[in-house]
Prior knowledge:
Elements: E1 6-8, E2 15-22, E3 25-31, H1 42-45, E4 61-69, H2 72-84, H3 93-101, H4 106-110, E5 115-124, H5 132-141, E6 151-153, H6 156-169
Antiparallel strand pairs: 1-6, 2-3, 2-4, 4-5
Amino acid sequence: DETIEIVCEPKIDGLSVSLRYEKGKLIQGATRGDGSIGEDITSNLSFLPDIPKLINNAPEILEIRGEVYMTKKDFAALNHNQENMGQKLFANPRNAAAGSLRQKDPTVTESRQLHMFAYAWGEVSNVDVETHWKFLEYLRGWKFPTNPLSGLVCKLEECIEVYQSIEEKRSELDYDIDGI
């Protein structure tokens, strides 16, 4: 009979990243890699406008997990430019985002339109967070973008309604999702 809160949110089809902040300052960004060891992409992530470089009222240590993606519109423009320059086309927005973040030359990353949705935490000090939804509120307060289609529900039927609502909008979204 106990009410259980469920957070329903789209799973963005992009590149998972982890951002480490110390004393509110972004000090490192990395890919998920093999789950244990990722690739340091701090310099390339610094070009994303969705990633705050400084956070006010942040805990001493704060690790934010997010998904970097490219919109479908920006993907089409990138492939159009690639074609005009006689270069290889990207297969999909996820590959374009991943390839853009893993560039050795940060100016290439800077020239591409990448975005991020924050969705979770890793290591965090001094934050009393009892629920995932509460942490999403913290993220928004720290100026991280979270997915606006995310919702908090308390019943299985409501969860199914959110799923169906997102599924109906899926083809109209300007980014790819691969689940909820």
